[in-house]
């Protein structure tokens, strides 16, 4: 693994940790994140989300192309919600998602922040 890919991976993990911190602060009753151990759970969950985004998410996007097409892309946040739910199942009580509609709003916010992270920060590093 070259140094540029490693830097991109580290920035993605730290970016997702920040995104999860922001969404857990905005949606306190919907997304619970354990803040013990100096925020280490944010890094652990972000690492899991980055790994799931690079392995499981392309498969989920491919499977749900018809649904996403029919809904004109409105189903895509549900894919992010599903990834977050898988991460919450892996981590256990340290990261939980309650309810569906506020979680969808949080997923939309995560999608927007993910695009900003990819297009503004990571695109410059990848060049």
Q: H/E series, N to C?
A: HEHHHHEH
N- to C-terminal distance: 16 Å
Contiguous helical run count: 6
Q: How big a fraction of the residues is strand?
A: under 5%
Provide the number of structural domains.
1
Q: In terms of quaternary structure, what is this?
A: single chain
Residues in helices, as a percent range? over 70%
What topology, given as strand order, has the largest sheet? 1-2
Number of strands: 2
Structural class: mainly alpha
Concise description?
Helices cover 78% and strands 5% of the residues. With 127 residues, the protein is mainly alpha-helical.
Describe the structure.
The protein is mainly alpha-helical. The protein has one domain. Helix content is 78%, strand content 5%. The protein contains 6 helices and 2 strands; from the N terminus they run H-E-H-H-H-H-E-H. The two termini are 16 Å apart. The mean pLDDT is 84.
Task: Provide the descriptors you would attach to this structure in a database record.
mainly alpha; two-stranded antiparallel ribbon; 127 residues
Blueprint (SSEs and pairs):
Blueprint lengths: L2 H24 L4 E3 L2 H20 L1 H7 L1 H6 L5 H16 L3 E3 L3 H26 L1
Antiparallel strand pairs: 1-2
């Amino acid at each position: 693994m070259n140094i540029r890919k490693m830097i991109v991976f580290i920035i993605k993990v730290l970016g997702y940790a920040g995104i999860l911190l922001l969404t857990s602060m905005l949606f306190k009753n919907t997304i619970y994140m354990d803040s013990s151990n100096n925020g280490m759970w944010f890094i652990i969950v972000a690492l899991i989300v980055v790994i799931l985004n690079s392995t499981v998410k392309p498969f989920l996007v491919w499977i749900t192309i018809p649904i996403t097409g029919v809904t004109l892309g409105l189903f895509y946040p549900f894919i992010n919600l599903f990834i977050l739910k898988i991460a919450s199942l892996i981590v256990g009580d340290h990261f939980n998602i309650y309810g569906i509609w506020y979680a969808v709003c949080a997923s939309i916010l995560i999608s927007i922040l993910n695009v900003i992270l990819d297009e503004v920060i990571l695109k410059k590093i990848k060049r």
